[in-house]
Amino acid sequence: MLLDCPTHPVPTTFHYQTPEPFDVVIYHNPACGTSRNTLAMIRNAGIEPHVIEYLKTPPSRALIKQLLARARLSVRDVLREKGTPCADLGLADPSLSDEQLLDAIEAHPVLLNRPLVVSPKGVRLCRPSEAVLDLLPEQKGEFVKEDGERVVDEHGRRVATA
C-alpha cells in the first residue's frame, strides 16, 4: 500500500515514455542490389518495414505524384533508363510532359527507379542505398553492403567514404 505524504506525494497518473511508432515503407525490387542493401539498412535500424514489391503491386499515378512531391523530385528524376524500355519508348525526349512520362511508368512499372522509401522523416529515392540513413533512427550495429563496402561501424555510426 502506498501512502501519500506532503513532501513526496504519490502520483495519481503515471507517464511512460514510449518510442513513437516508426513506420517505414519501401518500394522494393528484390532483383536490385541497391534495393536489397536499402532494405537491409532499414532492418539494421531495428525496423521491419512495409515492403511493396512495386513490379507486382505498382503504386497508383496519384501516389507516385504524392511521393514525388514529398521527395521534391520530378518524374524525370525517378525515370529509370538502365534495363528498361526507356530508350525504345523515346522517353529521353525532353519535350515529353510529366503526364506522358507517368503514362509510360503506369504501362511499364520497371521505369520507376527504386528504391523509394517513406518514413516519418521524409521520402527519398535511395540511390545510393546509404541515402536511407537520413530517413532512419540510429543503426543498431555494423552494416556492410553486398559488395563489401562498410557503411556503418560497429557503434552504428556512418563510415566516411572517400
Describe the structure.
The structure is a single chain. This protein is of the alpha+beta class and 162 residues long. Helix content is 20%, strand content 13%. It is built from 3 helices and 6 strands, in the order βαβααββββ. It has helices at residues 33-44, 61-71, 98-107; strands at residues 25-28, 50-53, 116-119, 122-125, 143-144, 150-152. A 4-stranded mixed β-sheet has the order 2-1-3-4, with helices on both faces. β1 (25-28), α1 and β2 (50-53) form a beta-alpha-beta unit. The longest helix has 12 residues, at 33-44. The chain is elongated, with a radius of gyration of 21 Å. The chain starts with 24 loop residues before the first strand and ends in a 10-residue tail after the last strand. Mean pLDDT is 89; it is low at 1-18.
Please report the total strand number as a whole number: 6
Q: What is the radius of gyration?
A: 21 Å
Mean of residue pLDDT? Answer: 89
The 3D shape can be described as elongated
Topology as a string of helices (H) and strands (E): EHEHHEEEE
**Can you list the strand order of the major beta sheet?**
2-1-3-4
Termini distance? 62 Å
The stretches of 5 or more residues where confidence is low (pLDDT under 50) are 1-18
Percentage beta strand: 5-15%
Portion in helices: 10-25%
**Number of helices in the DSSP assignment:** 3
Largest sheet: 4 strands, mixed
What is the subunit arrangement here? single chain
